[in-house]
Design brief:
The complex is a heterotrimer of chains A (about 350), B (about 190) and C (about 270). Chain A has about 350 residues and is of the alpha/beta class. Chain A has 13 helices and 16 strands. In chain A, helix 2 (about 35-45) links the parallel strand 2 (about 20-25) and strand 3 (about 50-55). In chain A, about 55% of the residues are buried. Chain B has 6 helices and 6 strands; from the N terminus they run βαβββαββαααα. In chain B, helix 4 (about 125-140) packs across helix 6. Chain B is globular, with a radius of gyration of 15 Å. In chain C, strand 5, helix 6 (about 175-185) and strand 6 (about 190-195) form a beta-alpha-beta unit. With about 270 residues, chain C is of the alpha/beta class. An 8-stranded mixed β-sheet of chain C has the order 2-1-3-4-6-5-8-7, with helices on both faces. Chain C contains 8 helices and 8 strands, in the order αββαβααβαβαβααββ. Chain C has one domain: 3-Layer(aba) Sandwich (Rossmann fold), CATH 3.40.50. Classes of the chains: A alpha/beta (about 350), B alpha/beta (about 190), C alpha/beta (about 270). The interface of A and B includes residues 30, 262 and 355 of A. Strand 9 of chain A pairs antiparallel with strand 2 of chain B, so a sheet runs across the interface.
């Protein structure tokens, strides 16, 4: 029993190590930088763990792909602008089938935006950021202990699905310190199945559409479909094993709040007023679970740190109107949530007042 | 029961450090705790702050829009966080830099000349540990012994030379916290023995 | 065993245009690999987008055909994770000097023990003959109808910003020098860059006045000369090798060359020593 204070970014790193990661490449960017720094410190003491502070995020993303193909469980961590630079490589890893983990500690964007303020604006980028069609697995923890747990699961899902998996966090969770007892957390670790480079085969790992013998299939739609459907089916099948979500609070309430990551924590004081559904697996969308839960509630409100990115997804899945409480510009506060809910008529106005007022 | 504390002031006054010490002390006292530094543009050169929430159960929300204790070490921090103290709460102001009382009559206001005391103790950066001592004297959220152990844990690892001065500053703060206070609300009896 | 065992001849003819210089590089690489005992159990090929990138598919090795410009971070990471492997990058001048230029700059600085064979045809061939960073000033291309206006990137100067790097200049006409350069580059304990002037007849050569690939090769034969022994740097149209001082921290699994290390300043002629 070793209870200790642990920071969200540190927990991500420790989770990655628990999952067996032996290669990190990254480029400093707030608010993810502690992961890079801690990885460098770990590498200094553990020669089997290799660390590269690369020249940019493009190099970082491609380096973890090379490291993974060479046989190492590998990962990188970044924030919005760096995540954008990594998107081409993420698409490549999807096409080639490279297990690796991309951690995106979200801040307020676009561009440099508000570098130290929390945001949740990369929900769609984590799904659709690269070109073309592909099937992403994305997890988003809500606490420090979950940063650890879902870092492990991200690596497991990457190994099983043979694809890059994204672990989203945000500036808030990243710098949150909570009491954690890592020894008490049981995790299962999935081992590498993809044979490493130079194990006697003559494979061609390429972003080009090719046949099994390596010949280009760049004008063959049937071959494209065959490979695309196969990859999609494998990822969806594997994703079923990682259907993490939470449903609770006042399940008798008329209104269901949907909140994920740090936003779910911020809404906690409203637990007696509302039901909560929280997806941890952001992508693929937990459509069946969402439909079941939504059917029990008259109103649905998505509270998120962006202008309706997940709300739009929920509307598409449920084919019904969904209310939104966007928390923008880093204003991740209970007050902002209360105001939003009051505006929607879902929380009595007297519950919203200046800070310090009785509620 | 959860108790929330915000530490705020200039960068360089050791506010994040004081919050970290309180959080470690809570771990030592086998309480649940959450500590979050406030990051923002003001972090670089302006106001710095952090929030510590201590409880008997795992902490739910990491954000509070009112706090039980505000430790405000400069005028902007008093202005910003004075209004966020819950009724019956405690506002500790650094009277070396903040001349006037904030003036709420529903909270306990404690004026401690933290900067002057820190200078006497030899280092301006001791401001926040002095404030932490005053805080623990008025609100024994954790045991003073746990704070001392936490200081040893955090400081010994990084700056063993500073340990003696840090422990002394905390003791100065504890004594200052037992001084008479401004404000109407009755203060709980100082409980240094806990 | 022979060098043809390195090639997937069942996939021939290759996708490359008749008269392309890339096949000449693949042949010499295969010969050197055969000589050095490099096979699919100890060597990985990393190639980049561009006509050259296809080489990985024609050889009996695990090959990583990377995104455009990203050979170096991939190759360096492979070498880091598996120091016992030989990692050989084959890519073009657009891949290395333009879109991957930042990686080149920093890979040179970090000095990983990898080998880069750069097929330098001074043009973007795959996309139809646009001017590139290595295109000589004044060249008319499909994207510079009035002639390029900028000075080409100095690959030798760039590579030699590192005191530890290996730079070789050769052409596909000078097959002996090419083979020697590839062999020495693979053996070099650190970053080694072989700058190989090569013809692209279809998307450059004819536009700049060469009637055939053979005329381009004859042009290389006429224009290029071995550098005098002792040159510390190669002039334009000189063939040779410029060696830095091998770095003290030899990567795991790689022995530093015995018998003293040549320092920069000893440029071998390269030609005719096979």
């Amino acid at each position: 029993m070793a209870r200790r204070l642990l920071q969200g970014n540190e927990a991500v790193l420790l989770g990655a190590l628990r999952a067996g990661a032996t290669y990190y490449a990254g480029y400093p960017i707030s608010p993810s930088t502690e992961i890079l720094m801690r990885a460098s410190v770990h590498a200094a003491d553990h020669p089997e763990f290799r660390f590269l502070q690369a020249e940019d995020e493009i190099a970082s993303a491609n380096a973890i792909i090379g490291a993974s193909l060479a046989g190492a469980k590998s990962f990188t961590a970044t924030s919005g602008p760096g995540f954008s630079l990594m998107q081409e490589a993420i698409g490549y890893a999807h096409k080639v089938g490279v297990p690796c983990v991309f951690v995106d500690v979200q801040r307020v964007g676009p561009a440099t935006g508000m570098p130290t303020m929390p945001g949740q604006g990369d929900i769609l980028q984590s799904r659709y950021g690269s070109s073309g069609d592909y099937t992403s697995l994305v997890f988003y923890p809500s606490s420090v202990v979950e940063c650890y747990r879902y870092a492990v699961e991200a690596f497991n899902a990457a190994e099983e699905s043979l694809s890059p998996v994204v672990l989203l966090t945000d500036a808030f969770i990243a710098h949150l310190n909570e009491v954690v007892d890592l020894d008490a957390i049981e995790v299962e670790v999935k081992e590498r199945t993809l044979p490493a480079l130079a194990s006697g085969q003559t494979r061609l790992f390429t972003g080009v559409l090719v046949y099994a013998d390596g010949e280009p299939a760049t004008a063959d739609a049937d071959e494209y479909l065959r490979q695309y459907e196969e990859a999609k089916a494998r990822r969806l099948t594997i994703a079923e094993r990682y259907a993490f979500h939470e449903y609770g609070w006042n399940t008798e309430a008329e209104t269901l709040l949907i909140a994920y990551g740090i936003t779910r924590r911020i809404c906690q004081p409203l637990a007696s007023h509302f039901a909560l559904w929280r997806p941890v697996r952001i992508w693929p969308v937990l459509e069946r679970e969402l439909r079941e839960v939504a059917a029990r509630h008259r109103n649905i409100v998505v509270v998120e740190g962006n202008d309706g990115q997940y709300a739009g997804v929920v509307e598409r899945v449920l084919r019904r109107d969904v209310a939104r409480v966007p928390l923008l510009g880093g204003r991740m506060s209970l007050e902002a949530v209360r105001e939003g809910l009051a505006r929607l008529g879902l929380l009595a106005p007297e519950a919203v007042g200046p800070a310090g007022a009785a509620r | 029961m959860e108790r929330s504390v915000v530490f705020a002031g200039f960068g360089g006054q050791g506010l994040l450090f004081a919050g970290q010490v309180l959080a470690h002390a809570a771990v030592i006292d086998e309480l649940e705790v959450l500590w979050i530094p406030s990051y923002g543009p003001e972090m670089r050169g302006g106001t710095a702050s952090c929030t510590v929430i201590v409880g008997d159960e795992p902490i739910g929300s990491p954000v509070v829009d009112r706090v039980d204790v505000a430790v405000a070490m400069n005028p902007p921090s008093v202005a910003k966080f004075g209004r966020q103290v819950a009724p019956g709460g405690l506002l500790i102001a650094n009277s070396s830099l903040v001349e006037e009382a904030y003036g709420r009559d529903d909270v306990e206001e404690l004026q401690v000349p933290c900067t002057a005391l820190a200078r006497e103790a030899g280092d301006d950066r001791l401001v926040s540990l002095i404030a932490l001592g005053a805080l623990i004297a008025r609100r024994p959220i954790v045991r003073p012994a746990a704070v001392r152990a936490a200081i040893r844990k955090v400081v010994a690892a990084r700056q063993p030379d500073a340990l003696r001065a840090d422990l002394a500053a905390f003791a100065v703060g504890l004594r200052a916290g037992r001084e008479p206070v401004r404000g109407r609300a009755a203060a709980p009896a100082p409980d240094a023995a806990r | 065993m022979g060098f043809k065992d390195k090639l997937k001849e069942e996939l021939f003819p290759t996708i490359w245009c008749p008269g392309c210089g890339i096949g000449l590089i693949m042949t010499q690489l295969s010969l050197v690999m055969d000589d050095l005992g490099l096979d699919e159990g100890n060597t990985v090929l990393v190639t980049g987008i561009g006509c050259t990138g296809r080489m990985g598919g024609y050889m009996h090795f695990d090959a990583v055909y990377t995104l455009h410009g990203r050979t170096l971070p991939v190759a360096e990471a492979i070498k880091t994770v598996r120091p016992e492997l030989k990692v050989i990058v084959v890519s073009g001048d657009g891949d290395q000097a333009s879109i991957g230029g930042n990686h080149l700059l920093h890979t040179i600085r970090r000095n990983p023990d990898i080998t880069v064979l750069c097929n330098n045809n001074e043009i973007y061939g795959l996309t139809g003959g646009q001017a590139g960073p290595t295109t000589p000033q004044g060249t008319k291309t499909v994207s510079s109808p009035a002639g390029t206006t900028t000075t080409p990137v100095n690959l030798q100067g760039l590579v030699n910003t590192s005191p530890h790097a290996f730079y070789a200049k050769t052409t596909v006409y000078h097959q002996g020098a090419l083979r020697k350069a590839i062999r020495e580059a693979i053996a070099w304990p650190g970053f080694a860059f072989v700058d190989i002037t090569s013809q692209c007849i279809e998307n450059n050569g004819r536009r700049i006045g060469f009637p055939s690939a053979n005329e381009m090769l004859m042009h290389y034969k006429r224009e290029f000369r071995p550098a005098p022994p002792g040159s510390s740097a190669l002039e334009s149209h000189q063939l040779g090798i410029v060696r830095g001082t091998p770095e003290e921290r030899a990567p795991a699994g790689v022995a530093a060359p015995s018998g003293g290390s040549p320092s920069r300043g000893e440029a071998g002629s390269g030609e005719g020593e096979e």
